[in-house]
Structure of FAD/NAD(P)-binding protein:
Amino acid sequence: MADHPTFTLAVVGAGPRGVGVLERLSANAPELLGDRRFVVHLIDPFPVGPGRVWRYEQSPLLRMNSMPEDVTMYTDDSVRMAGPVAPGPSLIEWAREVRSGSLSFPVPDDLRAEFDALAGTDFPTRRLQSLYLRWFYEKVLAELPPGIEVVEHASSAIAIDDGPPQRVRLDDGSELTADAVLLTVGHLDATPDQGENALAAFAERRDLAYYPAGYTADVDYSGVPAGEPVLVRGFGLAFVDLMLLLTEGRGGRFEDLPGGGLRYHPSGAEPVLHVGSRRGVPYHAKTGYRLRGKPLQLPRFFDSYAIEALCARPGPIDFRADVWPLIAKELAWAYYTELFTGHPDLVVMDFAVFADRFADLGWGTSEMESLVVSAVPAEEDRLDLERLDRPFGGERFESAEELGKAVREYVEADLARRANQRFSADLGAFMALLSVVGQLPALLMTGRLSAASQVADMDGWFHGFFSFYASGPPPRRLEELLALADAGLVSFLGADLLVTADESTGEFAVSSSSFPDVVRARTLIEARLPEASVPRVFDTLLRQMRDAGTLTEETVPDALGDDQPSGRIATRITDSRLLDAAGTAHPRRFAMGVHTSIRSPGAFTRPRTNAIMFRQNDALARELLQLSPEDQPTAGAGPITS
């Protein structure tokens, strides 16, 4: 190894994604590294492995919205990649092995009870997931092949100067050089947008409290007053976290009732939360059952062949008009496969007959509707995607009381449905949604989606629908919501929320399309993560690179010339290379994450789903292992202009 120059990689962000790339570097090294030396610098002020979001030092009230049997950091033989499969335990398998003594890992005393009782269908705390991620990192370290070395830096990168080599400056005053840099970025923190700035300025003038969008676990809500009304915009996972921190987190207590349900005992330190959103209801609860029908064959109608046929048409592709019908048919296929084969008593047609006719019909046609109605007698057993997306569908209520009753009935019905095996077809649709997300990168690589449709419909509407249907909270969180509503500590504002600064009263005012009243308060909280925005990015390093022109906002090209900014970090989709302001792909800089051009999903995934994350990590690791420490990229690196 002494005869070969050392290659140095700086990874900025050492949470699950950064460590996932490290694992793929390790797995591919025996084939590609040879007898060279490869040094990886992991740069993160948060603990390596868990990173910021999954760090152990956070409230024990905050939980995952995934079950431990559905969480893994390990590849399996479902993953279509060039590198080798390196199997390992899912979260629940790991916990069982630690409990049995076949694996050794120290479990903190304050997590011991949860850890010992953990079942595959529970929803663990984020602190427990932190242990799994830390163990995974330590195992990767222990199994590194000869030639790979890891150096940790518990600091933040604040600037990168071009080379060769690249010079990465850290906030502790040190500097390191690297042959390549990888940014593993999660959600981008952003400064307030124009509307938020206006609300913040109003709050300052009127001595009000305004909390802009941010990661809930990192926001200080200690100033939210007890006993006073608080307006909350956002009804997703960020709201669920906020709800717990401002109630149970302030000393209240939930009591399990003998007949089911919960009762909340206030501490007196809670505010009164008035919550609304675009839909006016919380995300769907996670299902509490497994599929019981025949194995789903996915993708079926939204696969590579369908995408090729779609792109063979002339003109730009519109997501809602051209892509969504294929996606909807895919969801319906999985839904009805599970319904027919798992619950034959709920249908009046042979599945083979239904499947043949279903395959020949377009989604949304009267013929498709007639087929479903003739085969599925009960309306509650039919898939209504439009109703799922807009549950109140423009419904208007005469009073807050009527609206509250409607929201409560909606949540109760959702909880009942997600707990009843009869409705396991919903899980079929969920699995199809995961499959669809895995196919979207192939569509993006064609460059055929119109820019406006990609930004507004795919990134906007479809991502929102996916989160609403598939990324909801554990059922108990919605039970807690109902208990807080019963206790008078949560009320509902409805759909299509409109927030204004009421100069006449000196308060924030909220109205909605759901009922005629206007609700006012002196505190307003945005319960959501900031939207991706390179122009407003808060991170010091990303700002420095943006201002230097070495990192830029993605502009989605349009065949008709109507290019659209997306807010995301511009990367080359084929290889994750970072694009600069001139559109040139840097030969030695890469970026991966949800807010880059490749629109990567989360950093860990469900087992046996051919997860995009694993495929992307593997491809990038192989690319990095084939770079040389010289000034120019190797022959296999491809052109350096996009």
